[in-house]
Amino acid sequence: MDDPRQVLERSPVVSEGLLGGIYSPDEVTVDHRLILGSSPELIQARWPVEFRFSTAVTTVPPGFDQVFICSGDDFETLFPDHWAASGIDRVKLQMMAARSPSGFQLGPALAAGLTLRFYPSFRICSTLPRLARRIAEETPVLERWGIHVMASETADGAITIGDSHEYGLAVDIFNKAEIDRLILDYLHGFLRLPRPEIAQHWHGVYARHPEADYIVMNPRRSPRGGKGMTMSWALAEESVNEVGL
Question: Distance from the CA of 188 to the CA of which of 69, 159, 182, 231 falls in 20 to 30 A?
């Protein structure tokens, strides 16, 4: 736990009302735009893997020892009955990227009070129910759109800002300007980011289970279902190790 002085030494946060912060030296920020593009080359350099792009997989034929289905939020093409019975649905997240002002450095990735009520890891905090109740009573619109606010800096200096959470199988293809405004308003309450110029708006859609971190399904002793993208690499490694590959 850092005191206010230590927090201000690490990050350009708002000092008024600052009581302290939690710092983790183990957190790693991944730029998904770079990772997704470079992953096939990195994997092929280490393992005898063949990638086939622009190919629709519509069935899983017999004869394979192991098949791992990584279909994102496509629940209709392969084993739709199993997906429908699993309880997994979709979550849509709105995100933004701001051009970093000249000379600005964010430092560690930042999250503020809203995040405490969002991740299960913080449930060990005895006062969390009171915080969650206060947020719901004072800012119900943040609850409505599942907003908690984080900021991180990519290698090219851009500031990634997010996010919101809209749940349900039917995903609205249009972003909501109100959600972006709410995120930015809350961000400016704890981060001194001068004149942010928003360069990009986008949304992601992920598979998510309302209760479990992930579930395991074996219609042919193969598929697994997860929750979001944060756990994807660890779940992939665990799945491969379990079958001895």
Answer: 231
